[in-house]
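Input set for joint prediction.
Command: fold jointly, output tokens.
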Amino acid sequence: MEKDKLSQQKLDYNLLFILFLMAIVSAIAIHSAQPSLPEKLQNVNFASKQLQWYGIGIFVIVLTMLIDYDRFFQIAWYLYGFGMVLLLGLELHVPGTVTLKGATSWYSLPGMGNFQPSELMKIFMIIVLSRIIVNHREKYPEPTIQDDFKLLGKMALTTAPPLLLLMKQPDLGMSMVFTAIVGSLVLVSGIRWRIIFAIVLSAIVVAAILVFIFFKFPDFFHKYILEDYQLNRFYGWLAPYEYSNEQGFQLIRSLLAIGSGELYGKGYKNLDVYLPEPHTDFIFGIIAEQFGFIGASVVISLFFLLVYRMIHIALESHDLYGSYLCAGVIGMITFQVFQNVGMTIGLLPITGLPLPFISYGGSSLATYMLAIGIVLNVRSRTKKFMFSSED
Amino acid sequence: MKKRKKAQVPFRLNMLFFFVFLLFSALILRLGVVQIVYGEQYRKEVERTEDEIVSTPVPRGKIYDRYHRVIVDNVPLNAITYTRTKTTTPEDTLKVARQLAKYIDKPVEKVTERDMKDYWILTRRDKAEKKVSKKERKQFAKQGLSEKEIDQKVYKLTLERITPEDLKEITKDELEVIAIKRELDSGYALTPQIVKNKGVTNKEYAVVSEHLEELPGVSTTTDWERHYVYGNTFRSVLGNITKDDEGLPRERLDHFLARDYSRNDRVGKSYIEAQYEDVLHGKKAKIKNIVDKSGNVISTEQIYEGQRGKDLVLTIDIELQQRVEKIIEEELKAAKRSGGTPLLDRAFVVMMNPKTGEILAMAGKMFTKNEQGKVELRDYALGTMTSAYAMGSAVKGATVLTGFQTGVLHPNTYIRDEPLYIKGTPVKKSYQTMGTINELTALQRSSNVYMFKTAIAIGGGKYQPHAPLSIDPDAFTTIRKYFSQFGLGVKTGIDLPNEIIGFQGTSKLPGFLLDLAIGQYDMYTPLQLAQYVSTIANGGYRMKPQIVKEIHEPSNDEKQLGPVISEFEPVVLNRIDMKTEYIKRVQEGFRRVMQETGGTAAAFFADAPYKPAGKTGTAQAFYDGPIKSKRNAETYNLTLVGYAPYNDPEIAFSVVVPWAYQHEPHYPINNKIGRKILDTYFELKKERMNHDSEQTDSNLSTEQSNEQ
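tokens >
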């Protein structure tokens, strides 16, 4: 059992190094965005505060790693229940909830600022869905097509309640993250390709029908399908110059900032274009304007490396549960990066999702650190069996 | 440790990784498109900013009299202005108005019901929304209207449905907010709009200045108000400028906009202020606002600091003007007191330098009822060029000269003054039968018959007692042609707008030709009369009357006028056709009128040391003044023209008192005024000479400080 003890110390330094680079990028980007912030925020040094959050994040990682991830497997449903209680609290507007820009998504924590329970819930969802898949796999080692549907049904039933609550807040961005997590887990769960294709196909068909209704029966569409403010996101995204609403305005500013950065960028702290929320949602615009296509690509590559490293850990793990956890985290991070970067360059509609690890923000950073902690946990408990053959 | 790994999981994980790869590739691809393919385009767009050049008003030029005394000055006023940007919304102005209302008092009487309704909608959104039901909104939507049109319709409906009860909710404090807001809203983007400039207390000014931070767009500056140093004196000719809430006159909007005016500029709208708008209006300070694509002002820089308007120096002697106006007032009152003058309500005097055409005084006074129904004397100096009257015998100088020129008279022609009996006409005669007289006596004693017979001769007619008279109607044209060489019946050319040419009788019956010859047919303005007598006084040159002498560069020194930019030279409009020899005869006749016994004005002027010459006039006229019931009543106009000294005239004048009396004996108001104004003129001249010899280096500054 000596080997066990040794392997306890096994830390993934590659992952930690990538994380370290992320922290540097984040500090530089936030620091350069500081002068563009509104006056009332000028007395806060966001870059140094972000580094403090990184410090707290490391503490979170250590805490996560102290517990064997099998424990998470055991208490998965309790975590899920805890998360649901928090979300229900928001729905019922219990004292301590905070409403910003029409969405009730936060609890006010004395001394810590605002805390967004859906951030935690993302992690809990990964934990609980992975358990569902593992249990299902054990029960049906040779699943029939009905078993696959059964699994899908279980996952859908588990995801639906928190998803509904999120949509009611409303928090479109977070709901999409949840969907992405579920999607990546469905993919790795081993459900037949046929079913996956069918789901993707039906999603496309539904989208096509909606577009058809929108153009053919606009009244019906406005009344029963999407509210005007939701539609505005699409208008702002697809035709920012015609629809000078808030989203359109933000997209135009963002495209101007990023585009004018060109290949090499304008140089550190040379910002010509005013961007809204430069230190949080639009931090990628700040990076792309200053450091150009090259700098922006480096940042994207960094994320790619991070995902690559996590895939590696998932593959190395001999434990199904560990692999699923990693897959969930990958889905979550990938989607958020894609969504955040995509919205700044007009690839996706604008939603209020931060760029993981880079955007300023304590509670989101803590969540990603928690996720990283889980992945590191999986890694550290993966044993190399001397006599086992590589599969 | 459990070992539950299945072979398919690594494959699926690789698939996941493949999707991640695809997504990230999409990002890089799109990033490349934005930054590399379109990068240059975006960069150019960022570099492109718009420059908006905004002009801020500068004070108007001042107006001085001929001796450089300020007549129209600018008084600085504390002013609070507001400049809206292109992106300012009603909510923004409401916010600013609410803040401002805390610091300043604003009178609320200008607030309209519409202002209140707009405010009500803006502040009571929920209630306003209920005014138009969803059903109605949907109906609009069904009509296929665009969203904008629907919004407009709904807004209009809401406005209509606001009841007086709703408006009663608006408190007094809110009313003030509305009053301020309406000023804020009335401006044009990037053009400063005055919110308050009258009665801004020092405290208000200071408090607003302190709180400019929280009042975006608001600024405290100095505004200028016209100040008329001599009150009502000459006021009507000086003209007016538009008020700050009036802006550019609508009928000349394009004219002004093409000349770089802003819509809320104050401009001259009448008389001197309007005529010399180009001079008095300064060059505005130009401020360049650099504006980005969404209309936010990024920075401002001043590109031209502006220059206040140029100063006008008038030909008017304001002291003479003041005294002349006083004389008119006194004499009008005296005439009224003397009785028999129910229709008398006005009198005019024009005094000009006959050699240069410079107008020294131009006065008119009129009794009018003011708003309270009280009778008061109002300035009517404008009447000297905008109203015309039958001038009577004053024009006889022109008649005699026309006689000479047409060859029907020669110097020293004797004609018999006798009552004329023309068939079908009442007897035509002079006020007394004078026997056989020459043209000098005819002028001296103001013979009508001498003029009648001259006119008949011009018309080729032959007078035979009790026979009908026939004359060539062309004689009207001939006489009018020569009269016009003196300025009678044509524009005098004065540099002021709205001058009239008088009125011509249309009928060409022979009797009217006789009336024309004694100034009882066509009507002339007092200014025309002054030009006429000047022409005789200066030996036959019709001078253009001028009211502006010089234009000066604005100076920064309050006490000193800037350098002269342009000076107005005397303008000879025409030389009359008559020989100098003929003119001399008329001048001698005019001298006799005032200086020889038997002259119609000798009783008033014979003892005058400055040796005047002139001609009186009494015209039988029909009343056409403001009292409607008395229209066409028979009355007499009293006039007097003259100049002094007779041998080297430096001042020429006309006095016109329409509807002066209805029956004898009459108060000789024309002569009284004439004597007094000439006395005053020479008195002032003497005073000035004494003053100058005492203080040869007298300059503006002492004169001005004496004045104020």
